[in-house]
Amino acid sequence: MTYEEAQHELDRLKDLHLHIGYIRERIDYLSGRIEHPGSDIINLFSGRSPEFSVEAKLAKLADLKRDYDKLLAMAVELEEKIIGALSKVDMKYQVILEKYYVKGQRLEEICVDVHYSYPQIKRLKKRAVRLYYEARI
Fold first, then answer.
1. 94 Cβ neighbours under 8 A, 6+ residues apart
2. Is the pLDDT reported for residue 33 higher than 90?
3. pTM score, two decimals?
4. Looking at residues 63-84, what average pLDDT do you find?
5. Scanning 57, 86, 117, 132, which has its CA 20 to 30 A from the CA of 4?
6. How many domains in the chain?
7. 60 Cβ contact partners less than 8 Å away, ≥ 6 residues apart
8. Are 31 and 60 in contact (CB under 8 A)?
Protein backbone atom coordinates (compact mmCIF):
# COMPACT_ATOMS: atom_id res chain seq x y z
CA MET A 1 0.00 0.00 0.00
CA THR A 2 1.29 3.47 -0.89
CA TYR A 3 0.85 6.62 1.16
CA GLU A 4 -1.67 7.90 -1.42
CA GLU A 5 -3.69 4.68 -1.13
CA ALA A 6 -3.74 5.01 2.66
CA GLN A 7 -4.93 8.62 2.32
CA HIS A 8 -7.57 7.50 -0.21
CA GLU A 9 -8.77 4.78 2.17
CA LEU A 10 -9.28 7.34 4.94
CA ASP A 11 -10.97 9.79 2.56
CA ARG A 12 -13.23 7.01 1.30
CA LEU A 13 -14.50 6.36 4.82
CA LYS A 14 -15.23 10.04 5.35
CA ASP A 15 -17.05 10.21 1.99
CA LEU A 16 -19.10 7.11 2.86
CA HIS A 17 -20.22 8.68 6.13
CA LEU A 18 -21.23 11.89 4.34
CA HIS A 19 -23.15 9.96 1.69
CA ILE A 20 -24.86 7.83 4.34
CA GLY A 21 -25.96 11.02 6.10
CA TYR A 22 -27.35 12.43 2.86
CA ILE A 23 -29.31 9.25 2.12
CA ARG A 24 -30.62 9.21 5.71
CA GLU A 25 -31.93 12.77 5.20
CA ARG A 26 -33.60 11.74 1.94
CA ILE A 27 -35.21 8.74 3.65
CA ASP A 28 -36.52 10.96 6.45
CA TYR A 29 -37.83 13.52 3.96
CA LEU A 30 -39.55 10.94 1.79
CA SER A 31 -41.01 9.17 4.83
CA GLY A 32 -42.49 12.50 5.90
CA ARG A 33 -44.04 13.01 2.48
CA ILE A 34 -45.63 9.57 2.70
CA GLU A 35 -46.94 10.20 6.21
CA HIS A 36 -48.12 13.76 5.40
CA PRO A 37 -49.24 13.79 1.77
CA GLY A 38 -50.66 17.32 2.08
CA SER A 39 -47.27 18.70 1.07
CA ASP A 40 -47.93 17.38 -2.45
CA ILE A 41 -50.88 19.75 -2.77
CA ILE A 42 -48.60 22.66 -1.85
CA ASN A 43 -46.14 21.53 -4.54
CA LEU A 44 -48.99 21.43 -7.08
CA PHE A 45 -49.92 25.07 -6.43
CA SER A 46 -46.29 26.22 -6.35
CA GLY A 47 -45.70 24.89 -9.87
CA ARG A 48 -43.48 21.99 -8.82
CA SER A 49 -44.34 18.59 -10.19
CA PRO A 50 -45.35 16.38 -7.26
CA GLU A 51 -45.08 12.62 -7.15
CA PHE A 52 -48.65 11.79 -6.11
CA SER A 53 -48.37 8.05 -6.27
CA VAL A 54 -47.79 6.48 -2.88
CA GLU A 55 -46.47 3.43 -4.71
CA ALA A 56 -43.82 5.57 -6.46
CA LYS A 57 -42.80 7.09 -3.12
CA LEU A 58 -42.61 3.66 -1.48
CA ALA A 59 -40.52 2.31 -4.36
CA LYS A 60 -38.12 5.26 -4.07
CA LEU A 61 -37.98 4.78 -0.30
CA ALA A 62 -37.14 1.08 -0.76
CA ASP A 63 -34.34 2.02 -3.20
CA LEU A 64 -32.95 4.55 -0.76
CA LYS A 65 -33.05 2.08 2.13
CA ARG A 66 -31.28 -0.54 0.00
CA ASP A 67 -28.57 1.99 -0.92
CA TYR A 68 -28.32 3.04 2.73
CA ASP A 69 -27.84 -0.54 3.93
CA LYS A 70 -25.25 -1.23 1.22
CA LEU A 71 -23.23 1.89 2.03
CA LEU A 72 -23.50 1.25 5.75
CA ALA A 73 -22.10 -2.27 5.31
CA MET A 74 -19.24 -0.89 3.22
CA ALA A 75 -18.51 1.77 5.84
CA VAL A 76 -18.53 -0.74 8.70
CA GLU A 77 -16.13 -3.03 6.86
CA LEU A 78 -13.75 -0.19 6.00
CA GLU A 79 -14.05 1.28 9.49
CA GLU A 80 -13.06 -2.03 11.08
CA LYS A 81 -9.97 -2.21 8.86
CA ILE A 82 -9.03 1.39 9.61
CA ILE A 83 -9.61 1.15 13.36
CA GLY A 84 -7.49 -2.00 13.44
CA ALA A 85 -4.57 -0.08 11.92
CA LEU A 86 -5.25 2.96 14.12
CA SER A 87 -4.71 0.84 17.21
CA LYS A 88 -1.01 0.72 16.21
CA VAL A 89 -0.76 4.54 16.09
CA ASP A 90 0.09 6.76 19.08
CA MET A 91 -3.06 7.84 20.96
CA LYS A 92 -2.66 11.57 20.16
CA TYR A 93 -2.70 10.86 16.42
CA GLN A 94 -5.31 8.15 16.75
CA VAL A 95 -7.75 10.63 18.34
CA ILE A 96 -7.27 13.12 15.50
CA LEU A 97 -7.79 10.50 12.78
CA GLU A 98 -10.85 9.01 14.49
CA LYS A 99 -12.45 12.40 14.99
CA TYR A 100 -11.77 13.52 11.42
CA TYR A 101 -12.29 10.36 9.38
CA VAL A 102 -14.50 8.12 11.50
CA LYS A 103 -16.70 10.68 13.28
CA GLY A 104 -16.58 13.23 10.45
CA GLN A 105 -15.63 16.23 12.57
CA ARG A 106 -14.12 19.28 10.89
CA LEU A 107 -10.59 20.33 11.83
CA GLU A 108 -11.96 23.44 13.56
CA GLU A 109 -14.10 21.24 15.83
CA ILE A 110 -11.13 19.02 16.62
CA CYS A 111 -9.09 22.11 17.58
CA VAL A 112 -11.68 22.99 20.20
CA ASP A 113 -11.92 19.40 21.48
CA VAL A 114 -8.18 18.82 21.92
CA HIS A 115 -7.14 22.42 22.70
CA TYR A 116 -4.69 22.88 19.81
CA SER A 117 -4.50 25.66 17.24
CA TYR A 118 -5.67 25.07 13.69
CA PRO A 119 -2.13 25.01 12.21
CA GLN A 120 -1.07 22.50 14.87
CA ILE A 121 -4.03 20.22 14.12
CA LYS A 122 -3.30 20.43 10.39
CA ARG A 123 0.30 19.38 10.97
CA LEU A 124 -0.70 16.65 13.42
CA LYS A 125 -3.31 15.30 11.00
CA LYS A 126 -0.74 15.10 8.21
CA ARG A 127 1.67 13.30 10.55
CA ALA A 128 -1.17 11.04 11.73
CA VAL A 129 -1.94 10.00 8.15
CA ARG A 130 1.74 9.18 7.66
CA LEU A 131 1.72 7.05 10.83
CA TYR A 132 -1.49 5.35 9.70
CA TYR A 133 0.19 4.54 6.38
CA GLU A 134 3.19 3.09 8.22
CA ALA A 135 0.88 1.00 10.39
CA ARG A 136 -0.87 -0.36 7.27
CA ILE A 137 2.32 -1.59 5.56
1. 86, 87, 128
2. no
3. 0.77
4. 94
5. 117
6. 1
7. 30, 51
8. no
